């Protein structure tokens, strides 16, 4: 099996001296869907910013699809690592949906019929093809989240990184997005505080706390470990049990 993401002994300290990561090891194989869980301040965002070279390791290495994340590879690394931000406003800025989706691949040199095909395919994958000529400003929150996802898919990434994908979505939009994500054939790393969403979408979860990986295993087993969750300030919704019938990771 091909490895999509390989993080080895990754350590990082901010200029003020705060040590955000302490020797993180993480390996994600192609096609895996993995949730990255942890309390605020655990180092999740710091880790994600190393995946596309925004931050440079103080120690250790990161590779995406076998390509080291180093300065001379950053253009290709940033195509391979597709980050869908928590707020669609950070990604949608063109007059129409189609222009927003075309922006990324065009920036990587795709033109003409190939670019049009990328846009059409990406919008079809997220169920938004009929909205291609609309302004993103006129879409619902859930629709905007799916268009933001399409802008990343159009670049054909090696790994899709989702930052709190379910935040601020109503139940219908949340379900629609889950259906889209489950149907995608792409490696996925989902950063989330939404533990039921992690269970629904990701068979495997990694718990990060205080800059260290403290747990890595099947999502259902980790969410059933209430002592571990409490120790790392993670909490299931009231009345929710990972053992409930109908909740199957990655179904």
UniProtKB/TrEMBL annotation:
Keywords assigned by UniProt, alphabetized: ATP-binding, Cell membrane, Membrane, Nucleotide-binding, Translocase, Transport
Q: Which PROSITE patterns match?
A: ABC_TRANSPORTER_1, ABC_TRANSPORTER_2
Q: Main localization of the protein?
A: membrane
Organism superkingdom: Bacteria
InterPro entries associated with the record: AAA+_ATPase (IPR003593), ABC_transporter-like_ATP-bd (IPR003439), ABC_transporter-like_CS (IPR017871), ABC_transpr_CbiO/EcfA_su (IPR015856), ECF_ABC_transporter_ATP-bd (IPR050095), P-loop_NTPase (IPR027417)
Xref: CDD domains: ABC_cobalt_CbiO_domain1
Where in the cell? Cell membrane
- Which GO CC terms are listed, alphabetically? ATP-binding cassette (ABC) transporter complex
Annotated ABC transporter domain ranges read 5-235
**What terms describe the molecular function in GO for this protein?**
ATP binding; ATP hydrolysis activity; ATPase-coupled transmembrane transporter activity
The family database entries (Gene3D superfamilies) matched by this protein are listed as: P-loop containing nucleotide triphosphate hydrolases
Q: Which family does it belong to?
A: Belongs to the ABC transporter superfamily.
> What name does this protein carry?
ABC transporter ATP-binding protein
Name the species this protein comes from.
Pseudonocardia broussonetiae
Question: Which lineage do the record's taxonomy fields give for this organism?
Answer: Bacteria, Bacillati, Actinomycetota, Actinomycetes, Pseudonocardiales
């Amino acid at each position: 099996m091909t490895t999509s993401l390989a993080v080895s002994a990754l350590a990082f300290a901010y200029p003020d001296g705060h040590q955000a990561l302490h020797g993180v090891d993480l390996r994600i194989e192609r096609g895996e869907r993995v949730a990255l869980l942890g309390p605020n301040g655990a180092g999740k965002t710091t880790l994600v910013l190393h995946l596309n070279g925004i931050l440079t390791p103080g120690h250790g290495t990161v590779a995406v699809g076998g390509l080291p994340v180093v300065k001379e590879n950053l253009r290709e690394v940033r195509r391979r690592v597709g980050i869908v931000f928590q707020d669609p406003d950070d990604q949608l800025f063109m007059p129409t949906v189609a222009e927003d989706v075309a922006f990324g691949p065009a920036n990587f040199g795709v033109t003409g019929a190939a670019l049009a095909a990328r846009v059409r395919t990406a919008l079809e994958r997220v169920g938004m093809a009929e909205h291609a000529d609309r302004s993103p400003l006129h879409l619902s929150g859930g629709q905007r989240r799916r268009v933001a996802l399409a802008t990343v898919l159009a670049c054909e990434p090696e790994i899709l990184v989702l930052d709190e994908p379910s935040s601020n979505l109503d139940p219908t939009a949340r379900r629609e997005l889950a259906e889209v994500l489950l149907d995608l054939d792409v490696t996925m790393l989902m950063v989330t505080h939404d533990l039921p969403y992690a269970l629904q979408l990701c068979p495997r979860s990694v718990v990060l706390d205080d800059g260290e990986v403290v747990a890595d295993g099947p999502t259902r087993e980790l969410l059933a470990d209430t002592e571990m969750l409490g120790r790392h300030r993670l909490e299931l919704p009231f009345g929710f049990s990972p053992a409930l019938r109908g909740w199957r990771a990655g179904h």
